[in-house]
Amino acid sequence: MRKVKGEVDEVDRERIIGQLRRCLDGREDILLGYLYGSFLRHGEFHDIDIALFVSGERDPYELYKYTMGIASDLERCITPRYEIDLRLLNDAPVEFQYEVVKTGRLLVSRDEETRIAFEADVIAQFLDLKYLYDTIDRALLARVGE
């Protein structure tokens, strides 16, 4: 049975994080795993948000089945059982990747060189985009002010 909404204290939060780590540790195909979102903050949450960077290429249908399978496995690994909202970082928009890297908590890192390279690439891409967005914003504000 899944809880739709939950609230946990710090001890239970850390226990659940440990359960998630143990579950992910057994999966060699998962290179990086991050916990992000409302579960990390104090107060209520609706689900547990997890972002993964995985090895290998998959067609869209296989990727869907693969992702749902991991989410289901993770839900079975934790007690009490909460819904897992799983997203893959591999082809996600850089804005999402940056938010996960910036605010998330690392659950698993199969290889530190891979993690460092991934995070550095995400930050560099985001800063390039941020500069572009800021330039566009300034131009639009200047036009509005005319």
Q: Secondary-structure blueprint of this entry?
A:
Layout: E1 6-7, H1 10-25, E2 30-36, E3 44-45, E4 48-54, H2 60-77, E5 84-88, H3 94-103, E6 105-109, H4 112-145
Parallel strand pairs: 4-5
Antiparallel strand pairs: 1-3, 2-4, 2-6
Helix pairs in contact: 3-4
Can you describe what's shown?
The chain is built from 4 helices and 6 strands. By secondary structure, the chain is α+β, with helices and mostly antiparallel strands. The chain has a single domain, classed as Beta Polymerase, domain 2, CATH 3.30.460.10. Strands 5-4-2-6 form a 4-stranded mixed sheet, sandwiched between helices. A two-stranded antiparallel sheet has the order 1-3. Helix 3 packs across helix 4 (112-145). The protein is globular, with a radius of gyration of 18 Å. Residues 20-113 form the Polymerase beta nucleotidyltransferase domain. InterPro entries: NT_sf, Polbeta, TA_antitoxin_MntA. It holds the Pfam family Polbeta. This is Putative nucleotidyltransferases.
Total tally of structural domains: 1
The biggest beta sheet reads: 4 strands, mixed
Task: Quickly give the structural class.
Answer: alpha+beta
Mean pLDDT: 92
In the CATH hierarchy, the third-tier topology is known as Beta Polymerase, domain 2
Helicity range of the residues?
40-55%
Radius of gyration: 18 Å
Order of helices and strands: EHEEEHEHEH
Q: Which CATH architecture?
A: 2-Layer Sandwich
Determine the strand fraction and express it as a percent band. Answer: 15-25%
Strand order of the largest sheet: 5-4-2-6
Distance between the termini: 59 Å
Count of DSSP strands: 6
